[in-house]
Structures are given as structure tokens and as C-alpha cells.
């Protein structure tokens, strides 16, 4: 992108100054691998330093201007006391016609992403504007902020004049190099394709295409390979536990870490560790292992962000759910053709698929489909209107090509076989029901192009992010599952298909099973005994303290109504979200009831020889029941039914507690 194109962009731009600050670094000080959070200018005032921007070196003396794009990596090595002004801004093409023209001409290029450095011919003119900008910014009144924007345009004009006079060479920031560097530095954090694209101001589609073109891998594949390489090193060179290694490389759920490790290496982490140590081989450099503190509050849910099974608090550092702003422009363009074809055939005369009609529901509602309005069938064009938190959505009355992410169990329970779903654990209760169904990978990051190729007529998603990603492809219904009970979620999904009666029957059958099971356990003298659910190994255990945690918590605590030991039950009675405590083995016995359920997975620690574990009465007397992580992961009505059967059978078979 040349300067004249950049100037055209500025003529069509809307801008916002995000921050301006003056920074002084002492002689010999360093700044390493700092990621620019937005497009920015660095203007040196005094002193000298060596600056590197995405690996490109600039020798900055007094009055040197450097521009970097959002996501660029900045390094500074000072030679003497060094002072500079840092100006962050956000700019976008304000006029739709020009923005569309730009995207069609060069969709892989982000406007305002040029990288350049130069010594201004008239440095004091630029300094004057920056000084005034700083003064107005500090005042921060409404009028001052308006003045800031005015001064910013004048600053840009002056800089472009000087750039043109000197014929300064500019270059585009390379998003692939930026992504590679970012993954190497942040592999233990929550990373998705959308977050990478947002980080570097590119669309998800084009970042993925460019990355794969240059490296032969997708960004997420490269992230996984990086994590696996770090994990292999730690397995061989450290005595950290499997859960500690998983957390260090970005997987809070050790089960998923073990599963993905075996998929890429061919053997489980434990077998790999034994094999490599026996051969005396080592790899890479060891990393610092982060320990889990005793008694730390641990939150999890049935599904979370990162790699499908990771806790929200996962990795070595806390993570929060991220609001995605990916535009998916190319997906929208591809899907427009499909939608126009559908309209021309006369099968739909309603608003665009997946979009609200303006009758948005209250976001605090606990159901995705309004129980008041329900669904309305239009027999003339064979469509149904369902009311969701995103507004009314028009769906086929009898959809034939359904794509569903994560919520497969409820769909299967209603007698519907989708054409594609997100990945399902091998041990899931309904796994056999999905034989031959296309897999779209992890639920939170389906490939839009793959979904388009399937030509679905209905999409069901469990998150805001997946709704935004897929809503332009086909009618898309967002089910905020985490705000619902199992029954509410089933009823919502049933309303999409007009299967309310089937849902009612399933719920009644479940309630009948629950009552029969409780009576059976009561007759056997078990129902009034205490039960605990744990997951972990030698270095510590997570004790489940919520009905919403999973691992059998719904079946035991919610449906069968069994109680935990008092110290745990007090928390279950007040906790309304998924949660538990991470405890050391030394204090664990205080939290174990008459029966204990332990969630296990491939690679889980063998606790047979641990004296503390073996001395716990429930374990010592044979009332330890191991539950498969896969089987107890899901909370849909199909899985809950099977989990209750399992729990009752195992409790009846175990020795009786006195």
C-alpha cells in the first residue's frame, strides 16, 4: 500500500484518539516484546535508542517518527536517557461505499496499517501538534476532546506532507509474522482465531488464509503444535504433575490436554514421559511451572472457552470471556448468494435469515425461545417464527439440514439427527446416535466455509460468538444454555422444531425416573448418606461444590437430591454457578462423604499407593466409584437420564455405609 492510497484512506476516515503519553526511559533500560494495543505513533524527543518493530530495526535519535500497526511487537534498547511521546488512535473507513470498494479491491489489507520510520524535515512542527494534543488530552473535557481530534487531523496532514517530500519507504505489517510471534509469547493464554484476527486488525478468514499459505498450517494448528512442543519438554525435564503441565501450556482441563496430546503425539503424556526418560532424550528448554494454591476457588462449567473443555479461569493466568467483533465479511458475501437463491425460489418471504426483526427479547431472560409467544407456524410458506434473545428468527417448519454446536444431546433426545455438529467426546452417552454425522471441530470455532458447504437450513448455537460467526449462513438460533435449567433448554430447542409435546414427554419421563430412583435408594438405606465428587490427582483435588459443575453433580445433587458433607453442602446451597475448591491431599479427607465419585480420564494419577487417599473410609471400604469424564461431561436430558442410571446402579452395588 503506497502513501497516496494511505492519504485516500485518511480522507474517508473517522478517528478517535485513544491515548497520548510522554515516557522517559533511563540509560540502559529495555522494553521487550510489547504488543501495541492499537495503531500508534512514537515520536522521540531526546536521547537515542534502538527500536525494533516486528523485527525491523530503527535507530532513533532526537526527533524520530515511527508508526506501527495494532498488534505489532515493539522492542526498545536505550543508549542514554530516552524520552518519547506515544500516541494511540483508532481509525476506520467511515463511508460504506468507499469501505466496500476498499474491501473488494484488497480485502487482505487493513487500512492505516503501514509501518514506517523517518527523521522529519521539520521536526518542531510535528512536536508542536503533539504538545497541543497532549495538553488537550490531559484536560479531557468534551470541548478539549473535540480539539484533540482536530489537532490529530492537523498532525496527520503535517506528517503526510513530510513523508511525501522525503519519499519515505513504507511497508505493510506482516500479519503472519505478527501471529507467529504472538503465539510464541502467549501460547498459555486464551487464543482463538477471532481473537488473533481482532488483535491484528484483520478478518478471521484472510488471516487464516495468509497464515496457511505461508506456514502450511492454520493459526490454531500452529498454536496446538506450540503447546504440545512445550508440554513434551516439560514432561521430560520436570517433575511437574500432568495438571500443572496442562495449565502451564494453556489447558486447564487435564483431560482435554491428555486427549489432544495423544492425538498429535500418538501416545498419552504419561507413556511419552516414561518412554523418553527411559531413552534419556530431552527436548527444548524447561519452563517455570506455576503451582495451584491450596484452597483456591475453582470454577468450571460444562463448556467453556479456549479449546472446548478449558475452564474460564484456565491457563497460568486468569482468563475472561471475550467479546468478539469479527465481521465475517467474506462469509456474509458468500452467504448472500445462497440467501438470494432461496428467496427467488419462493420458499421464504421473511426477513434475512438469522437476523432479528426488531422485537428483541430481554437479555436477562432465562430462555432462548419465549414461553409467552412460543413459535408460530406459517403454513403457506412452511416457516416458523421463534422468539429469541436476538429477536424473532424465521426458521423452516420442518428443517432437514440442521447444524448444532454443543447442544447435540437435546436435539438427539427429540429424535432429530443433525447433518453436522461440533466435536463430541467418545464416551458421551449419545455418541452412537451421531454415527456418520459431520464433525465441525471444537464448538466455539467452527469453520464457516465448511458450514456453508453443508448448505444447512437451520443452525443452533450456544454462544454470542458462534451466533455472530454463523448467523449470515442460514437461520441461526442462539440458546443461552448457561442461563437455563436442563428442562428450560430442552423446551426452547423443542419450540424451534415444533416438538413441544415430545419435550414434555421427555421431562415427565425423567421426573418419573428420578422419583423411582430416589425410592430405590431410600429403600436400600443410601439416599440419606453423603456423597462427594472429586477430580484431580496426587498434588491436589478439585472438590465439586455446585449443582452446575458437571461430573455427576446434577444427577446426584439436583435430581436425586443427595447431600454432600456439611462443609461442602453449605457451599452447594448458596452457589448458583459452576464451582469447586482445589484442595491439597492433606485436607481432602474432611471433604469426603460416605460415598465418593472420582472423575477419571486417560493419564489420571494412580492413587492406589497414596497413604492419605487410601486411608479415607469411603475409599478404604470400597465405596469409591470412578466416573468417566466423557460420560459425565454433558448436561442434556439424554445424558442426565443415562447418568442417573449409572449412579443408582453403582451406589446399589457398593458396600453399604454404616
What is the structure about, briefly put?
The protein has about 650 residues and is α+β, with helices and mostly antiparallel strands.
Helix-strand makeup class: alpha+beta
Shape by Cα distribution: globular
Helix content range: 25-40%
Biggest sheet character: 6 strands, antiparallel
Through-space gap between termini:
79 Å
Mean pLDDT: 78
Please mark out the parts with pLDDT under 50 across 5 or more consecutive residues, or reply none: 282-377
Radius of gyration: 29 Å
Helix count equals 22
Beta-strand percentage? Answer: 15-25%
Question: How many distinct beta strands?
Answer: 24
What order do the strands of the largest sheet run in, or round the barrel if closed?
1-8-3-6-9-10
Structural descriptors:
658 residues, globular
Any overview of this molecule?
Helices cover 38% and strands 19% of the residues. It is of the alpha+beta class and 658 residues long. The strands form five sheets. A six-stranded antiparallel β-sheet has the order 1-8-3-6-9-10. A six-stranded mixed β-sheet has the order 11-22-21-20-23-24. Strands 17-16-15-18-19 form a five-stranded parallel β-sheet, covered by helices on one side. Strand 18, helix 15 and strand 19 form a beta-alpha-beta unit. The longest helix has 25 residues. It is globular, with a radius of gyration of 29 Å. About 15% of the residues have low confidence.
